[in-house]
TrEMBL record:
The keyword Signal applies. Belongs to the plant dirigent protein family. Its main location: secreted. Keywords: Apoplast, Secreted, Signal. It is found in: Secreted, Extracellular space, Apoplast. GO terms for cellular component: apoplast. Transmembrane segments: none annotated. This is Dirigent protein. InterPro entries: Allene_oxi_cyc_Dirigent, Dirigent. Dirigent proteins impart stereoselectivity on the phenoxy radical-coupling reaction, yielding optically active lignans from two molecules of coniferyl alcohol in the biosynthesis of lignans, flavonolignans, and alkaloids and thus plays a central role in plant secondary metabolism. PANTHER family: NUCLEOPORIN-RELATED.
Length: 189
């Protein structure tokens, strides 16, 4: 009789530890990721009205190797800056990091603003940003709704921009884990 109760007791203990192990591992399962695809445009004005970048380190090299600027480019929802709405800005820096040049290394926070439904959230991005043609930059992280973001920004420079300006088409694809306490306002994008 005594050994029978002992057997039942040990079975209960084993069951209990299996159940608590299972619930412990369940509570560690990651929240599902969300995916976002945004089709936007980047508007860079190096000189003239609305200038949104400034050189902070000059270079004596013919290739401008080392030239460094602070950037606050506008991210707009259409290719024509005159009619498009600003939805974000890229706050960061641009460094000419190619000895032979040009090879513009960029890193920035793309901070969404009040005209975006992602107002206040950001993508943290870096990569080589050619002045013309196509390329890619990596999304290394994010804040707000875009917490734990990772993804890619594919860009394609539009031909014949106004003097001292570039306009790039951006195809942004990212995965992120939206925190439960995040609220997003706004209307556009
Ligand atoms: C955008 O976010 C800022 C900062 O959190 C907030 O003050 C503002 O009210 C927001 N605007 C809209 C339209 O949601």
């Amino acid at each position: 009789m005594a050994s029978h109760s002992l057997l039942v007791l040990s079975m209960i203990l084993v069951l209990h530890s299996i159940i608590s192990m299972a619930s412990a591992s369940l509570s560690c399962v990651l929240q599902c990721e969300s995916e976002v695809n945004l089709h936007l445009y980047l508007h860079q004005i190096a000189s003239g009205p609305g200038t949104n970048q400034v050189v902070i380190v000059t270079s004596s090299k013919a290739s401008d190797f080392g030239l460094t600027s602070v950037t606050d480019w506008a991210v707009i929802d259409g290719p024509n800056p005159a009619t498009a709405t600003i939805v974000a800005r890229t706050k960061g820096m641009q460094v000419q990091a190619d000895v032979a040049g040009p090879g513009w290394f960029n890193y920035f926070s793309m901070v969404f603003e009040k005209n975006s439904r992602y107002n206040g959230s950001s993508f943290e991005a870096m990569g080589i940003n050619f002045q013309t043609g196509q390329g890619q930059m990596a999304i290394m992280g994010g804040t707000g709704e875009f917490a734990m973001a990772r993804g890619i920004i594919k860009y394609n420079a539009l031909p014949n921009p106004p003097t001292f300006q570039t306009i790039k088409e951006l195809n942004i694809r990212a995965f992120y884990v939206k925190p439960a306490d995040t609220t997003s306002g706004g209307a556009i994008q």
